[in-house]
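PROTOCOL LOG
Step 1. Enter all chains and additional molecules of the complex.
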Amino acid sequence: MNTQAHLPTRNGLDLVMMTKTVEALQNDPALAQFEFRASNQWVNGGENRSTIRGFFGAGTEDDSRTEDFTFTNGEPPVLLGNNEGANPVEFLLHALAGCVTTTTVLHAAARGINIRKLSTRLSGNINLEGLLALNDEAQVGYESIRIVMDIDADCSDEELDDLLNFAKDHSPVCNTVCRPVPVMLERA
Amino acid sequence: MNTQAHLPTRNGLDLVMMTKTVEALQNDPALAQFEFRASNQWVNGGENRSTIRGFFGAGTEDDSRTEDFTFTNGEPPVLLGNNEGANPVEFLLHALAGCVTTTTVLHAAARGINIRKLSTRLSGNINLEGLLALNDEAQVGYESIRIVMDIDADCSDEELDDLLNFAKDHSPVCNTVCRPVPVMLERA
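Step 2. Run joint prediction.
Step 3. Record the structure below.
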């Protein structure tokens, strides 16, 4: 007998917790203000390493993580590195894939849609003349990013299309990319 | 006797390779067109996993990586997860930190500036009412991101400030964040 079957979850999300979270934010919108953080240490050349752990949210400093997450940026030989890690523009695709996926899964759960499988493929074009300052006309960041999602769920194609449009409009990473977000860089 | 001392490197970058790369791109700008990629598989709830390996650039499909990079997105308990990994908006900070750092190191090398140490701390604010569709006025992505850089190099403060402004203007991830970049989401 599977006792898990009695827990109210959908798409792996706890529906009771989800409802409680939404109610708490409706009662006190200040709880929705989050600050996320990373610190990064240059190693050499195109290699550097980030440490991620604490954040502020739901009115308090989070202490749920018992150890740091660490991630290494590197570059391939054609970009003067030794593949010490994926490179920063690739990590951005990972962040975007994850955010669009989680936003889709979350709003599907809220709509009563059960997702059976979901995968994405992302590709983005960059003209490196921008980075290297060889051409003032070249766009420096991604020119565009394409996400192809393979999704199987217990709803109609129309409901899926509506869900995907909604997820795109409500994904924090997607909206950090497709809208202008100010970045301030200052010396310590 | 340190034979490494005879190699023309600066900030860990091979200056001969750097010059050859720039010359090659000046002769054939088409070589500067890169396509980066990621594929991602939903696991459950807020957990999903990306695979990164191949990319197109310098006129060819890269084959320098002998194995995949894999990264797991997760969420903390307050966001209905179990800390299976850092979350997507935190991975975006890692990407941004790495890109601004590498762009700084690269253009410092081109300017003859030796960097002794470089680290950054990033923080960004998000109002989760946007993600949860609780408030149409709430910005969905980061409201802003702040980077504080601790950098020690063999140049004046004025040269450092100029270098940092230049790096910010030429970092691909920074410009994907601070400028609007179109994201297309379609079903397979």
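Step 4. Note key features.
Helices of chain B lie at 15-27, 88-111, 157-170, 172-178.
Residues 11-85 of chain B form a domain with the GMP Synthetase; Chain A, domain 3 fold (CATH 3.30.300.20).
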